[in-house]
Amino acid sequence: MATAYERIRDALRQDIRGGRPAPGQKLPSEVKLSERFRTSVPTVQRALAELEIEGLIDKRHGVGNFVREPRRRVLRDNSRHQWEKDRAREPETTRLETGATEHDTGLTASDLVFHAEYREATADEDLAAAFDVPVGTKLLQRTYRTHSREEDAPFDVAHSYLLHDLVAANPDLLDATKEPWPGGTQSQLFTVGIELDRVVERLTARPPTSEEAEELGIPRGVSVIVLRKTSIDSGGRVVEVADVALPGDRTELVFTTPLARW
After folding, report:
1. How far apart are CA 241 and CA 196, in angstroms?
2. Is 256 within 8 Å of 89 (Cβ atoms)?
3. Domains in the chain, number
4. Domain check: are 26 and 115 in the same one?
5. Is residue 260 one of the residues assigned to a domain?
6. Residue 37, CB half-sphere, CA atoms under 13 Å: how many?
7. What angle do helix axes 30-37 and 41-53 make, rounded to 10 degrees?
8. CA 249, CA 228: separation in Å to the nearest integer?
9. 202: pLDDT confidence band, cut at 50, 70 and 90?
10. How would you class 59 by CB atoms within 10 Å of its CB: exposed for 0-12, middle for 13-18, buried for 19 or more?
11. Do 9 and 58 sit in the same domain of this protein?
12. Can you give the pTM of this predicted structure?
C-alpha cells in the first residue's frame, strides 16, 4: 500500500506530465500542497524531493519549486557508425549537410553550437593499454561539446584521443580551427588512409562528478552514462579511444543486433 508521500508524489507527477503546471511554471507552495493533500509539510517535502531526483522539478532555494523545462532527447543508435563510415567518401558538400549530433537529435547544423578544444597529451596506463602503446606515447586529445541554441547544457562531453604521429601526416587534423570537420572522425581518419573495421563501445553508469552535473545540467539523483568508444582499423590497430559522458535523464541508447538466419 502506498504511503502518504508516495500518493502525493504520484499525483504531482501525473499533474506535471499532464501539463499542469506547465514547464517553467511554479508549483503551489509547500504549505498550499499540504493543505491540498491534508498532510504535513515534511511529507510534502519528501514527495517533492523524489520528483526533484526524477528530474521533473527544480528546487530554487528561497523561491520555490518549478516544473523543469524538458531537455531535447538524444537517441544514440549503434547504426550511427556505419552511417558515418558511408559518408567518409562522399563529397564535402554532402558531408557538410549533417553530422553525428544532427543524426542523434534530429536538429540541423544551424540549430547547434559546436565547441572543440585540441591539446597534446601523453598516454597514461589506461590509454596506453587501450592503444597497446608504451606509457608516455604522444597523443592528440580532442574535447567536444555541442548544445542546442535553445539550451545551455551540452548533449554530452566527449574526450577523444588519437595517436599523434598517426594523424600528423595531415596537419589539418592537428588544427582545432578546422572543426567541425565535415563527416566527423571517420572522415578525418580517411584523409590519412585509415578505414575503420569496427567500433567497440562499453557502457557503465555512475553518479556524476560535481563538474559533470553542473556542465551537463544533470539534476540531483540522475546518473551519468559513461561510454568508452574504441575504434579499430582494418588492420586490427586501435586508432581512436573516446570517453563520452552522457546525461542519463535525456539520453536513450538503442542497440540493434542483426541475427543470422537458421
Report:
1. 13
2. no
3. 2
4. no
5. no
6. 24
7. 110
8. 19
9. very high
10. middle
11. yes
12. 0.84
User: What percent of the chain is modeled with pLDDT above 70?
Assistant: 100
pLDDT tens across 160-184, in order? 999 999 999 999 999 999 999 999 9
182 in the same domain as 231: yes
Measured over the CA atoms of residue 170, residue 172, residue 175 and residue 181, the dihedral's sign is: negative
> Would you say 150 and 112 are in contact if contact means Cβ atoms under 8 Å apart?
no
- What is the Cα–Cα distance from 205 to 11, expressed in whole angstroms? 29
| 261 falls within a domain | no
Q: Is 133 in contact with 221 (CB distance < 8 Å)?
A: no
**What's the confidence (pLDDT) of residue 58?**
84
Supply 206's cell numbers: 555512475
Domain housing 191: 74-254
pLDDT tens digits for 245-254?
999 989 999 9
CA nearest to 142, candidates 155, 129, 160: 160
Spatial distance between the Cα atoms of 111 and 174, rounded to a whole number of angstroms: 26
Residue 33: which of 45, 51, 24 has the closest Cα?
45
Cβ-contact 164, 139 below 8 angstroms: yes
Final residue before a domain boundary, out of 17, 32, 67: 67
Residue type, 215: E
